[in-house]
Amino acid sequence: xxxxxxxxITILKLTGNGSILNEQIYKDVRIPHNVALNLLxxxxxxxxxxxxxxxxxxxxxxxLRLAVxxxxxxxxxxxxxxxxxxxxxxxxxxxxxxRNGYEVVENLRFKHAARKWExxxxxxxxxxxxxxxxKHWRKGLYPSALKKIVERQVERTFAFAESMNAFERFSFxxxxxVKFVPAVLSLIPSRFKFYSGVPVVPxxxxxxxxxxxxxxxxSLKHFGKSLSNKFNGGS
Length: 235
Description:
The chain is an alpha+beta fold. The chain has 2 domains: about 5-85, Orthogonal Bundle (Arc Repressor Mutant, subunit A), CATH 1.10.10; about 85-225, Trna Endonuclease, Chain: A, domain 1. It contains 8 helices and 10 strands. The strands form 2 sheets. Strands 4, 5, 6, 7, 8, 9 and 10 form a 7-stranded mixed β-sheet that branches. A 3-stranded antiparallel β-sheet has the order 1-3-2. A hairpin with a 2-residue loop joins strand 8 and strand 9 (about 200).
C-alpha cells in the first residue's frame, strides 16, 4: 500500500467542505500518527495543504494538485476525481485567467436569436475574448461526443460575438477589433489537443495555453468582430 497516496485520497475526501481537524485524518487513514504527521508536513512544505493549529485546509487549486499527485502515485483517476466538485474545477480556471492578466466573467447568460445561452467562463484581454466550456468528465471521450461538445461551444461563442453590441459595459466595448475564441477545458487530458481548430485544454495546462494564445490565435477557430462593423466571419 502506498501510504502517501492513501493519505492524499483521505485529504481529498474530507476537505471538500472546508478545513478539518487533524484527528479526522489520523482516524480515517489508519496509519501511525507520527507517520501521518511527517507526510502532512511534507505536503505542506510542497504547498499542497495548509497545516496549522491542529487544522488542515486545502483550497481548490491545492485540491486539484493533490488529485493529480495521487494519480501520479498510482490512484485510480475516476475514483480520485469523484472527490472534486464542479465549482472547484471552474474556480481554478478563473484563477488561471486572472494570473495571465485577464478580466473574468463567470456563468455569462445572454439571449440571441430567440435563444438563451450560457458560457461557463469568459476571459477578456485585448484583443481576445476566450469563451470556455468547463467539462468535468472523468473518462476519455469518443470523437463523436467531443465533436458535439466543440460544436456547441462554437455556437455559444458565435452567438456571444453576434450579441457584442448588447455588452457595452464590458471592457471590449472600447477595443475596436475583438477576437472571440471558443475553447473546451477538461479536468483530464483528452486524446485530442484540438478539434476542428478548437483547443481542448487540460486544466493544469490552461495557464501555459493562455500565455501562448496571443501568438497562435490566428491558427485557431475564432470570430472577429467590432462594435462599428458588421460581423466579419470566422477563421
